[in-house]
């Protein structure tokens, strides 16, 4: 089940329309707190989630990791993964609205949805990052 969920999120990461300066955005906003725009906050949270998930996977793979830590990581991941998936969906919708000749209300609604997704994902992703030691 976890492998399937991880594969689905990996696919979602690959499908997010990337702006031409995504690497610069991620490099300049290494943490969501430093991000200047809503879009860079979203990308920074996605990057934080990805980094935390990798760190958590490495911890779980170590035989010396205590069971309590593994349980805490699993609980944090169970909350962060749906939040990250919702954030990716909102980011994808925002990028589609931004790149299409849609009306301003469509872009505004997508921006509001992205704002809500960023706020909803911030806590769970930060918790997973902390639990994973990132």
Give the structure's gist in a few sentences:
The protein is built from five helices and no strands.
Fold topology:
Elements lengths: L1 H14 L6 H7 L9 H24 L5 H33 L4 H28 L3
Helix pairs in contact: 1-4, 3-4, 3-5, 4-5
Explained architecture:
It is a single chain. The protein has one domain (21-131). The radius of gyration is 16 Å and the shape is elongated. It has 134 residues and is mainly α. The chain starts with a helix and ends with a helix. The chain has helices spanning 2-15, 22-28, 38-61, 67-99, 104-131.
Top keywords for this entry?
134 residues; 5 helices; mainly alpha
Low-confidence stretches: 14-29
What shape does the CA trace take?
A: elongated
Q: Could you tell me the radius of gyration in angstroms?
A: 16 Å
Largest sheet: none
Q: Which structural class should the secondary elements be placed in?
A: mainly alpha
What fraction of residues sit in β-strands?
under 5%
Overall mean pLDDT stands at: 81
Q: In whole angstroms, how far apart are the ends?
A: 25 Å
Written as H for each helix and E for each strand, in order along the chain, the element string is HHHHH
User: How many E-type strands?
Assistant: 0
* Tally of separate helices: 5
Helix coverage percent: over 70%
What number of domains? 1
């Amino acid at each position: 089940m976890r492998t399937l969920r991880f594969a689905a999120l990996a696919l979602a990461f690959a499908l997010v329309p990337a702006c031409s300066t995504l690497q610069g955005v991620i490099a300049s906003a290494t943490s969501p707190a430093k991000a200047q725009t809503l879009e860079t906050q979203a990308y920074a949270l996605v990057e934080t989630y990805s980094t935390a998930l990798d760190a958590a996977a490495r911890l779980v793979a170590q035989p010396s990791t205590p069971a309590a830590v593994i349980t805490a990581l699993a609980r944090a991941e169970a909350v962060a993964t749906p939040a990250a998936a919702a954030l990716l969906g909102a980011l994808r919708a925002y990028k589609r609205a931004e790149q299409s000749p849609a009306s301003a209300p469509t872009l505004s609604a997508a921006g509001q949805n992205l704002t809500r997704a960023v706020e909803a994902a911030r806590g769970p992703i930060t918790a997973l990052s902390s639990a994973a030691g990132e």
